[in-house]
Each structure stands twice: as structure tokens, then as C-alpha cells.
Amino acid sequence: MEQLRIAQVSDLHVLKDYRNSMFDRLPLLQTELPANYVQVALREIAEAKPDILVLTGDLVHEGSAADYRFLKMLIDRYCDGIPVLPVLGNHDLKQSFYRGYLNEDRTGRYYYKHEQNGYRFLVIDTAVERNGCGDISSEQIDWLEQELSHASENGTILLGHHPLQSRQAWFHTDYDARLGDILEKSDVIAYLCGHAHYAEDCTICGIRQITAESCAFGVETVSDTDVIYTHTRGYNTCWLENREIIVHQHQMFPVHPQICRFAF
Ligand SMILES: [Fe+2]
User: Fold this and answer.
1) Cα-to-centroid distance, 195 and ligand 1 (Å)
2) What angle do CA 103, 107, 113 make, to 5 degrees?
3) What's the sign of the alpha-carbon dihedral 185, 200, 251, 228?
4) How far is the CA of 207 from the centre of ligand 1 (A)?
5) What distance in Å separates the CA atoms of residue 25 and residue 22, rounded to the nearest whole number?
């Protein structure tokens, strides 16, 4: 049986220093800084030893190359040795990411392929900087069409930031309808994404779409015009067995929820 255990952390919103950022103006977040929760998640993930760690966007909150170097240092500190697939979100500044995380001088959308245990990961960049709505460029749809024209050994996992659809009314994602045909005819098992800061699980274009909770803070739509920020935080473990995917949502609390530990 082919297996793969994926840890999915989304919407990290890391900064080295939150002063003068959006978080500085939100009293409830001043003592509950996202970078602290990212470290809790990474520490728990390191202990669980997944096969791969995927970060589905908003890695850093409109920060500099130094903020990306800080994030990379945290990942290396806790999860050294685990393959990591970063995805860009709308709060990621692409040039800062390229400079700080990849140590490269380039611009433009960041999409790429990774293969592991016979599974193919296709990572797309659905984000336009500082635009809450998603956009999948025709260049990326062409690339997906070409990559998905042949099946991989065990199936494909698609990674991106914006859900293709969501019950959260404060954003939408634009893409050409031919993407739906491409996905329906493909070996894609699931699309793992984030952005909503609200866990959702649905089927679209014949594939499972799993939207992870943010590990920084929650967002909920409470009326046609209003959203609230919440203390809801979490990350996912996804067990892949052949073409089945089982998702466990880990919740994170201001106080660590572990009561005791024992051997059995
Ligand atoms: Fe986010």
C-alpha cells in the first residue's frame, strides 16, 4: 500500500517584529502573536515526523527578505530533514520571498513540481500581492494541463493558497473554466489550500478540496458584510493511502492542551 503523511500549515503570517504591522492594531492579537503559534505547530509536527510539510500561503505578513530568513530559520530549527513545500499567498511579497527564502533575485509567480513516494505535488501561485481575491493565470493553467496530461505513479496533490470555492463570502478566485475540465480528467486526488482562515472540506471539479485553518488566527463570515477575527487556530495532518485522504485537524490553544503523557 502506498502511503504518505502530509503536515499542512497554512496562513502563518510570520514577522520578526509585529510593531507597526496590522497586528499592532488588534489588541487580541498583541499577546497571541502568529510567530508563537507557528513555533508550537512546528514543534508538534517535528515530534510527529511527517513525510512532508506543506505551507499553503501567507507565510509572512507583508514582510521583508529578513522575515523570510527568520521563517526559514524556524523551520530549520524544528523540522530540519523534513521536505518543505512553500506556497505563496496574497500577504507574501514575492520579491522578499525569493530573496529571503530561496536566496534568488527574481520576480513573478512561484509554481513548481515536487515528487515523493510516487506522489506528484503541483504547487500553484494563486496570489496577487495584497489582493484578497485569488487569480490562477492562464500560464499556470497551461502548465497544469501539460503536467497532468500523463498520470503519476500514485496520484497528484495540488497545492495553492486560495480555495477554488468557499462558503466565506469575503473573497473569490478567478480562473478559466477549462481548469475544471483539466482537473476532472486528471489523477489529482486533492487540492490543499488555505486563505479562508476557516477549515472547509468539499468536492469541486471532481477532486477533494481541503481548506486548512490558519495557525495564526481565525476569520468567520457573520453576515453579508461582516467578518470577525477569532482565536480559532490549527493545522492539518493528511494521511494519504493510495488515493484515499484522511484529514485530522489539530487545534491550537493559548494554553497547551496536553494534560499528561504516559507510555503504554
Ligand atoms: Fe492569511
Assistant:
1) 5
2) 75
3) positive
4) 23
5) 6
C-alpha span between 232 and 63 (Å, rounded) = 23
Give me ligand 1 centre to Cα 172, in Å. Answer: 14
What is the CA(154)–ligand 1 centre distance, in A? Answer: 31
**Distance, CA 14 to ligand 1 centroid (Å)?**
10
Query: How far away, in angstroms, is 27 Cα from ligand 1 center?
Result: 18
For residues 72 and 68, give the distance between their C-alpha atoms in angstroms, rounded to a whole number: 6
- CA 197 – ligand 1 centroid, Å: 6
Q: Which domains does the chain have, with CATH numbers?
A: 3-251 (3.60.21.10)
Tens of pLDDT, residue by residue, the chain (264 residues): 689 999 999 999 999 999 888 888 876 666 788 999 999 999 999 999 999 999 999 999 999 999 999 999 999 999 999 999 999 999 999 999 999 999 999 999 999 999 999 999 999 999 999 899 999 999 999 999 999 999 999 999 999 999 999 988 788 999 999 999 999 999 999 999 999 999 999 999 999 999 999 999 999 988 888 888 888 999 999 999 989 999 999 999 876 556 666 777
